[in-house]
């Protein structure tokens, strides 16, 4: 019985020899198509390469007119070759001329050939060209012949990616690998960055394609698959998921793929046809990605990223690689491109080399975005497909204002963005000059512009931004970026550094807000999986149930603030009894430290965050129970509107400047004035000039935001006639809902008075 795999193995062996020979690119291609034709007993073998202008150009042939090389061309979607390139699917026809997509190119002389087999040249699911064999006789090509041609196409894809074949391009015509690509998603942090791609999980380049021993490669595959399955099971059991920024369902999808017999069978077939285990993974991954890209079912297309990640994990297992050393060979203008990443991973990159962050997933309130905002780098998210289209070192622009990304941009676009960056730099210079001016409205009302922080990396920006103090110090970020619980001494040192840097300016420390979706990787077994984590066991609810956590933190804060004022704020308060319980723990720690003659704070002020709507019906009682309150507008908005802030489908559905929500915010500000209790707002609303303007009109005189937002907000503030705005808002909020959306009315108010927004 004929060994069906012998043909592919012989061909791969011949290709390996060809790749090792010192040949010019055109000669290498010519010999490859000759060897394929001889091996498959085909009268024609042709290679078409996709150019950046979406034209497929004939790069090599045996059997067709040799003068047609670099002259014959088809548009993407035109003819059989164009159809294969557009669909990323093979075509196997016994009579090609009967196919409705057949297009005759007279310069090639192919009219006498009937049977046709064409496969896409794929790399990471991207179509780079088409490889074709033809015969005069009418026949269907066998599965092993299709497999051989697909495997050969994979080798050619690496040649194209390496830039070797690109040397054959005519002047002014570039290959598709260098084609510009743009992506539109969401703005997660404003700013513009120009630089070069650094893939957070670098694509593994398989250099050893051909195997010497199929049985040994099958054994390697089996061992690595076993290790991969165990690691996935371990991750699911440990629930590291939230910290890594992955969701449990993603790991469940990984487990499904890792145990899928169809996937494993395709890997085994590729190995038996002569590929190494890692080359087999690369080939099957690329084939499946190309097919999934062209599926119309959105759920199946979403699973594409899961499959890619799984295949990359398997490649790392096979090649014995751990995570790449992050700072190694990092360009000076690095823009990180990632599917998702944790907050700690971003901090591993040297800040002075970062120019931006591009995420395929994520949400504006995810922890990595909070850290990126603190670092002052632009972030664009929900950029589907950005990872697979990018190569390390590609030029890239991230526009965190518009929520767009431009990969391999044209020179004129790059020049326009360079000017945009220079313009923003000039604006930043104006903002720096504003630091010296008092933070007052045009009619002389003083407003405290505070900054949000959470890590040591934030502290230098306190002086640079000209903030009046720190209105929200997120203490949980120290816990999230650590691999174990920070010791009391480490907590105390951070808090003391914060207070020292503030130089007497007010600092409000929020007690640790973990739980729900913020599960620490080392908090194993302590948190049960919840269907609605945002509404679950988190923040003050968790720390009152685990008082050891709160006691340790309070003791560190009290010791760090010796001789100074200490402001402590409780997150996620739902009822006043929680404040009483927390105050009891704090008082106990004060008595303990006093007993041992520790240097205590000169004053201790306790505050609560208004995030849970239940507090709206006990505002007066709340204001009497605490020294100050702070509105967490992000959580309050999602709970009032019943709209998950991490759900991208709802990201733009409800407006934070809607009449109902502004009425809620005014109710809180009025209660603060009525009870002589200071009120601050520290959510995303404070950081946008238009929404900050609305807050001032509602009665807020203290708002806290990211350091980069202070300049634009102050520029608005100094031109704002607050008395006029207050009357304007009173009229529009007290009567029937306005015919125009409140955001449009506020914009018109600002435009009429030349207030910069």
Could you characterize the architecture of this molecule?
- The chain has 757 residues and is α/β, with parallel strands linked by helices.
- It has 27 helices and 22 strands.
- The strands form 3 sheets. An 8-stranded mixed sheet has the order 7-14-13-9-10-11-12-8. An 8-stranded parallel sheet has the order 21-20-19-18-17-16-15-22. Strands 3-2-1-6-5-4 form a 6-stranded antiparallel sheet.
- Helix 5 packs antiparallel against helix 7 and helix 21 crosses helix 23.
Which regions contain 5 or more consecutive residues with pLDDT less than 50? 239-247
> What is the overall pLDDT average?
83
Question: Got a strand count?
Answer: 22
Q: What value does the Rg take, in angstroms?
A: 31 Å
Distance between the termini: 79 Å
* SS content category: alpha/beta
Shape: elongated
Major sheet: size, sense and barrel closure? Answer: 8 strands, mixed
Helix fraction by DSSP (H/I, runs of at least 4): 40-55%
Brief digest:
The chain is an alpha/beta fold and 757 residues long.
What is the element layout, followed by pairings?
Blueprint: H1 6-20, H2 25-39, E1 44-50, E2 55-62, E3 73-75, H3 79-87, E4 91-93, E5 115-123, E6 126-135, H4 143-161, E7 181-184, E8 186-189, E9 192-199, H5 214-238, H6 241-244, H7 248-258, H8 261-272, H9 277-293, H10 298-319, E10 334-338, H11 343-347, E11 354-359, H12 367-375, E12 379-381, H13 386-389, E13 395-399, E14 404-407, H14 411-434, E15 448-453, H15 461-465, E16 470-474, H16 476-480, H17 488-502, E17 507-510, H18 539-545, H19 547-560, E18 565-570, H20 576-595, E19 603-610, H21 619-625, E20 628-631, H22 633-641, H23 659-675, E21 679-681, H24 689-698, E22 702-705, H25 707-717, H26 722-734, H27 742-752
Parallel strand pairs: 9-10, 10-11, 11-12, 15-16, 15-22, 16-17, 17-18, 18-19, 19-20, 20-21
Antiparallel strand pairs: 1-2, 1-6, 2-3, 4-5, 5-6, 7-14, 8-12, 9-13, 13-14
